Amino acid sequence: MVKKNNRVLVAMSGGIDSSIAALLLIEQGYELVGMTMKTWDYSTTGSSSKETGCCSLDSINDARELAVNKGFPHYIIDIREDFENSIVNNFISEYMVGRTPNPCILCNTFMKWEALLKRADELDCYHIATGHYAQLAQKNGRYYVTKGVDGGKDQSYVLWGVSQENLARTIFPLGDFHKSEIREIAIRNGFDNLAKKSESYEICFIPDNDYRGFLKRQVEGLEEKVNGGEFVLKDGTVVGKHSGFPFYTIGQRRGLVAMGEPYYVNNIDAENNRIVIGPKNELMSKKMIVGKINWQKYTQIEDGMKVEVQIRHHDPGTPAILYNDNNNTIRVEFNEKVSAITPGQSAVFFENDDVIAGGFIMKKLD
Predict the structure, then answer these.
(1) Whole-angstrom Cα distance, residue 116 to residue 64?
(2) Which of 204, 222, 260, 285 is 20 to 30 Å from 67 by CA-CA measure?
(3) Are 11 and 33 a contacting pair, CB within 8 Å?
(4) The CATH number of 285-365 is which of 3.40.50.720, 3.30.230.10, 2.40.30.10, 1.20.200.10?
(5) Is the pTM of this model over 0.70?
(6) Which residues are marked as active site?
(7) What pLDDT sits at residue 233?
């Protein structure tokens, strides 16, 4: 590892957030090196949508233009092969066992940080910086993410997986800003194009936001393998046929069978190609198991610890009590029933605004 210095490797997607993060770091006196990661080749998706987001040529050019304008070096790294092996293949395999993955969390916290820090060492940069709306805190020798001041943009939920070693070298320049302030900074610095640039919310390797079409193109013979599965009720009663379990998610209401009242997907049985549906009340639950825990603020919990738990991005959070379970898993008991607990998604435990730990939802408990 390089010795601590004033050089920062800043991740630049070409969007407004990472660009203004770079400008703020310059104002704070840091010496910058810009880095844009090429993660995906859109031509491989078979999608007809135009390239958008962090992987497009336009975005890469925008990042480079800002670096040239401000006089710091900019590099492009090609991590497409690792991205496909680690992120895309995981996305496919999770759907094929009946879980619903969040590839952006995997990419941000388990892949991009490692890629950035590897290049930071090579370029003699001690710190790395990103355009996430989050803050970093330290207490009792532990580094942890805490919520950004802009509640509408806060991204602490997606950063639960960043390790202690990596957090120690991370800077979040945007954590104490609101999005409106970031746009004002862009305009004030003559980057009106950034302020007007639309934001991309879809998965970067699925620009048309059609994950079902993506799965069909990526998994040979998928439709033939899974078509004709059964819709069943909680008691096992068969009520219809569906087009294949990978094409459904927990909480989904549309595309099911007519039951006279709203019914929802509340369980996916991949092994038997069955989709369990039921009324809203069957979608609600007070308990779940969370595994593959990454600890941030603390290294463990005591049974009965009271926290706020988010089970999806922009979830306002629900009070809950945590209990240590077997095999490095945690049993979560909510104070009130929550809707659509989804295996494969992330659960993040908060103490006030601080990330205690996070992990993957393994299963819902009745």
Answers:
(1) 17
(2) 204
(3) no
(4) 2.40.30.10
(5) yes
(6) 107, 204
(7) 97
